[in-house]
Amino acid sequence: MVSLFTRSTLRPSSSVLPRALPRPPKPSSLFLRTFASLPKEQPRLRLSSTAPNFTAQTTQGELDFHQWIGDKWAILFSHPADFTPVCTTELGAFAKLKPEFEKRNVKLIGLSANNLSSHGRWIKDINEISSTDLSFPIIADADRKVAWLYDMVDSQDLTNINEKGIAFTIRSVFVIDPAKKIRLTMMYPASTGRNTSEVLRVVDSLQTGDKKGVTTPIDWIPGDDVIVPPSVSTADAKKKFGEVREVKPYLRYTSVNK
Question: Which of 85, 189, 193, 233 has the largest count of CB atoms under 10 Å?
Fold first, then answer.
């Protein structure tokens, strides 16, 4: 049988050949050395796991993270870089809310992927722009060691790199209790600023739950009714809290404001 296709018909025309895709930027030797020195396995940072300890240089000197926390709550939050617009607004907002966090026995500590001298100059800008006085420490994490330890590195780590070839960090929030347990995490892309009021709200929720043995519903703020956990019977809840409002057998509200 004679083939219906000749060799020439099977050969694609040069006009329809796919164009070669551009190669991704080659990671720099600094990037490769940095990540080669990091642990191959990252800790599994699940809720209720112990927050990894570390020693780092900060704008308030060298500190051991667990010793610095002591018997207080802590919020560790990261930033991609100094002198970036979104980070500048966030740190100014956290600085203004520091007294509110202190009322709740919470210490704040920031992290940014630059060195101490850069942090110092940046803080001057933050204070000027936000009319505040930033007084909590900021970790100098130019080598991304703490960012790697807490899995704050963008998953595009081989292509989403800065001019020095080091991976950008993302906007992470870790709420850590006095037992050094991770109680809550939030992660944002570098393009999205955080909501400091929400960070404060979740601290109130966690602390209320710990103190009163309750859970909090959607959009809860201090003063609102709370939920009786399923593990507590209605009879026991009435003994403990007084009035209990039953919407469904599994959904019961009460107040802890008395």
Answer: 193
Instruction: Please tell me the pTM assigned to this model.
Output: 0.80
Banded model confidence at residue 52, pLDDT cuts 50, 70, 90: very high
The 3 state secondary structure assigned to 202-252 is: HHHHHHHHHHHCCECCCCCCCCCCEECCCCCCHHHHHHHHCCCEEEECCEE
Cα dihedral angle (141, 143, 144, 145), rounded to 10 degrees? -90
Strands 226-227 and 251-254: antiparallel
Look up tokens 């009319």; give the residue: 131
Which two tokens mark 132?
């505040």
Q: Residue written as tokens 């057998």?
A: 249
In angstroms, the CA 40 to CA 126 distance is 36
Active site residue 108: no
pLDDT at 168: 64
Q: Parallel, antiparallel, or unpaired for β 182-188 and 106-112?
A: unpaired
Instruction: Let me know: does 39 contact 153? Beta carbons within 8 Å.
Output: no
Question: For the ranges 78-82, 86-90, 167-171, 200-204, which has the lowest average pLDDT?
Answer: 167-171
Q: CB 246: neighbour CB atoms within 10 A?
A: 13
Q: Which of 56, 76, 87, 244 is catalytic?
A: 87
